[in-house]
Write a structure and sequence with these properties.
Lyase 2-enoyl-coa Hydratase, Chain  A, domain 2; six-stranded mixed beta sheet; three-stranded mixed beta sheet; 11 helices; 48% helix
Length: 264
């Protein structure tokens, strides 16, 4: 599919990069961007050749959040139309969070408003230490509503309340301390760091990463009940008898690299 506001690049080793591609607008998103991202995520989900997904923004900034023109137009819509808009944003966040493949956000420059939700929906995120992050919605009379469940999962309830209510800006270094980012780096080292993260992920079984991700989403905060226990037992049993599981175990005992590393 041809996209206008984003780019989907398929690289080597099954790594796909999903680019926000409006650098002239600081990668601010509108209805078209959201729609294209949803379509791209559906495309990625159904592509068995994609092992890992990277979410990035072209240019100086990861994303400045919602496009000003789009927000101005939304203010003229009635409740029903705004509900439809918010449902689409919710669909984007849901699809990104539940994407089968592991996801890595790479954050530079500004990440405001809904962009924080995109970061929080990814399994992992790294960024520049001098990145500027802000849940800015209350400054213009709104709330980080649709993204809030995902931000709470990433930041925790206490920190989310602070930054959602204060609209304080915080750095990539602070975002690492809070847990939104896994690691932060000098801006000039960010690309190199991303390459190292991806090289490490490529060592792992694609099937095992997808199964682990699905299981951990279901496990949630770790509450143990009969259904969760059964799911954990079924997951490991299924992996052990699967082709990739057999290959992984055999390669370990035979002291060789598994087949999925041979394409590196």
């Amino acid at each position: 599919m041809a996209y206008q506001e984003i780019q989907l690049e398929r690289g080597e080793q099954g790594i796909a990069t999903l680019w926000l591609n409006r650098p002239e607008k600081n990668n601010a998103f509108n209805a078209s961007v959201i729609s294209e991202l949803i379509s791209a995520l559906d495309e990625i989900k159904n592509d068995q050749n994609i092992r890992i997904v990277v979410l990035r923004g072209r240019g100086k900034h990861f994303s400045a959040g919602a496009d000003l023109g789009w927000m101005k137009a939304s203010a003229q819509l009635d409740y029903a139309a705004n509900l439809t808009d918010s449902h689409e944003l919710g669909e984007l966040m849901h699809k990104l969070y539940h994407l089968p493949q592991p996801t890595l956000a790479v954050v530079q420059g500004a990440a405001f408003g809904g962009a924080v939700g995109l970061i929080a929906c990814c399994d992992m995120a790294i960024g520049a230490a001098d990145a500027v992050i802000c849940l800015s919605e209350v400054r213009i009379g709104l709330a980080p509503a649709v993204i809030s469940p995902f931000v709470v999962k990433a930041l925790g309830q206490r920190a989310t309340r602070r930054y959602a209510l204060s609209a304080e800006r915080f750095s990539g270094a602070t975002a690492t301390q809070l847990g939104l980012l896994c690691e932060s780096y000098p801006a000039e080292d960010l690309d190199t760091a991303a390459e190292k993260w991806l090289a490490n992920l490529c060592l792992n079984s694609p099937q095992a990463m997808a199964a682990s991700k699905a299981l951990l989403i279901e496990v949630g905060e770790g509450k143990l009940d009969a259904l969760i226990r059964a799911k954990t037992e079924q997951t490991i049993a299924a992996l052990r008898v699967s082709p990739e599981g057999q290959e992984g175990l055999n390669s370990f005992f035979e002291k060789r690299s598994p087949s999925w590393q041979e394409t590196r």
